[in-house]
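Z., the sequence and structure:
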Amino acid sequence: MGTFIIRRILWTILVMFVITVLVFLIFFETPGVDPARQIAGRNPSASALKEIRHQFGLDRPVPVRYVIMMKKLFVTRDLVSYSNQGQSVVPEIVSAAPATLSLVVGAAIIWVVMAIVMGVAAAVLRGTVFDPLLMILALIGISMPVFWLGEVMNLFTQHQFHDSFIFSWVPGLGYTPLTQDPLLWFEGLVIPWITLSVLYIGLYARVLRASVLEVQNEDYVRTARAKGLSERQVLVRHTLRTSMITFVSLFGLDFGVLVAGGVLLTEVVFGIHGVGFLTYQSLTNLDLPVIMATVVYGAFFIVLANAVVDIAYAWLDPRIRLA
């Protein structure tokens, strides 16, 4: 197991390095992309462009520029926004991360618990009316886009029924830090949690149901039943554990993508100033350093999540350690 973990860590470091190179080349070396013109504004003079290129090191060789940019991003952490010269990029991302983490972690807890309950229930109750009913509900959840569901939730909780006893407790749009007011933090995130989790509940429930039904036909499951284990013991110790491999794989990647900024639509709809909202603002302003930093940090988180998933794979199924 230790050799497997070390091998995965080394591959993770290599992938991260390749990501930084690719992202830098895409944002700063793509033909037709000139950051100096963006910084200078409309109709800049040739001398102004030259001065800006020298000031930001844009006239240096590509390898030197790459090293300088990565040093500012990871070592000195003094990378400055192009659209707002007094704003440091890394502290801005760090300050936005708690909002995104709060949103994703809360939604993940909801969708994991609900998906396991629905998926296992549908598999156990296969052949009854409850199986297709649960899968229809899951399909409805998958079919509702996050931005549409979020707007509908806002329509009910912020406008039409906000003054009713059902939704009068829902605060206005935005994010309240946990350290500032835990109760307001919770109340402000309940509706976004539900909105974000609906799609994943349906998707994960269907995936888990299919995995459970497939594993039930395996030889080791029949052997466990032949040994006299109860159906509950067979389900928990053998069927569910193996079925969770696909579940864990999806969760690790989806969680990484969401923390990396995949909750952009949810954050914009509910006015939560997290990493996704920051990425959205930087895209509208074409602020290359902010975009690059959010993409790099986001990609790093996804790679780390993938590495954790591989290790979880190896724990769930020892055969994978030999791959």
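The two ends are 12 Å apart (CA to CA). The chain has a mean pLDDT of 81.

Let me know what you think.
H.
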